[in-house]
């Protein structure tokens, strides 16, 4: 006959065995992505925001972007970079996976035909979290980087560098783990080089031509430090940038601020 202690140990062991590891969760997510493509999109502005925030004339609103965007009238920006701490995303309720992503990029605002961008996704299902580093030259879908991993609290630097209007290099450095990945990509779409941005996004997943925003996770706070963009004249900070907040279902979900070389995005 089994003792009570033995049965308790067996139950604990079976429960532990049933909980997927972070690698298993990441593998399952990649498998799901083989059927549904992941894509960041140009900013989707809201022309008439809700009355509760309509007096905030210093900021604009969209359904998918929150952050800061530098805007120029002619080809200006050659690279953009920023460093942030990987958050622990939290579920806002329900059993489905919820995600958000933090990235830097060139174009996608006033120039919406192409975006050169790279960043990190953070997703949560219940209390289980997963992270993916990715790169994208929109309008193509994104691709996950291999050879790099992330944990909550890691310091990560993301950089997008223009080589030409149809080519660029995308780099992610995990400063905490000492690993770096980089990819040079090209596209038939042409960059305008008129936008440089630091963004937290509610990205889309697509099955065929049908795309929809993923349920948006509570990402806490993303603070882009050392935020800068290079031009032919030198380096600039996000000072003077347009601030954008996410509004969904008549509710503002983020608070954005900028000071010096720091852009802060908070889940409201």
From TrEMBL:
Segment forming the signal sequence: 1-18
SUPFAM superfamilies the UniProt entry points to: Concanavalin A-like lectins/glucanases
Disulphide bond pairs: 99-123, 111-192
Xref: InterPro entries: ConA-like_dom_sf, Peptidase_G1, Peptidase_G1_sf
Domain of life: Eukaryota
Pfam families according to UniProt: Peptidase_A4
GO terms for biological process, alphabetical: proteolysis
Protein name per Swiss-Prot or TrEMBL: Acid proteinase
GO molecular-function term, one example from the UniProt record: glutamic-type endopeptidase activity
Gene3D superfamilies, A to Z: Peptidase G1
Keywords for the protein's UniProt record, in alphabetical order: Disulfide bond, Signal
Location of the active site: 201
């Amino acid at each position: 006959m089994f003792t009570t202690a033995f049965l308790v140990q067996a139950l604990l062991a079976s429960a532990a065995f049933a909980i997927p590891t972070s690698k298993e969760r990441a593998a399952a997510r990649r498998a799901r992505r083989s059927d549904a493509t992941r894509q960041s999109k140009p900013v989707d502005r809201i022309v008439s925001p809700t009355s509760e925030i309509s007096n905030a004339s210093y900021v604009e609103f969209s359904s998918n972007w929150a952050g800061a965007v530098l805007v120029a009238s002619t080809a200006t920006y050659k690279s953009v970079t920023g460093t942030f701490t990987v958050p622990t995303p939290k579920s806002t309720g329900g059993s489905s996976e919820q995600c958000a992503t933090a990235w830097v990029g060139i174009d996608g605002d006033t120039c919406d035909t192409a975006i050169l961008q790279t960043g990190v996704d953070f997703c949560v299902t219940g209390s289980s979290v997963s992270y993916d580093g990715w790169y994208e030259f929109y309008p193509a879908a994104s691709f996950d980087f291999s050879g790099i991993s992330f944990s909550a609290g890691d310091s990560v630097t993301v950089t997008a560098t223009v080589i030409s209007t149809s080519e660029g290099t995308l780099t992610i450095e995990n400063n905490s783990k000492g690993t770096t990945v980089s990819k040079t990509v090209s596209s038939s779409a042409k960059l305008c080089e008129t936008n440089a941005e630091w963004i937290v996004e509610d990205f889309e997943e697509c099955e065929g031509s049908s795309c929809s925003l993923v349920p948006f996770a509570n990402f806490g706070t993303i603070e882009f430090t050392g935020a800068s963009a290079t031009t032919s004249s030198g380096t600039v900070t996000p000072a003077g940038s347009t601030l954008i907040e996410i509004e969904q279902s008549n509710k503002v979900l983020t608070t954005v601020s900028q000071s010096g070389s720091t852009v802060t995005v908070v889940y409201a």
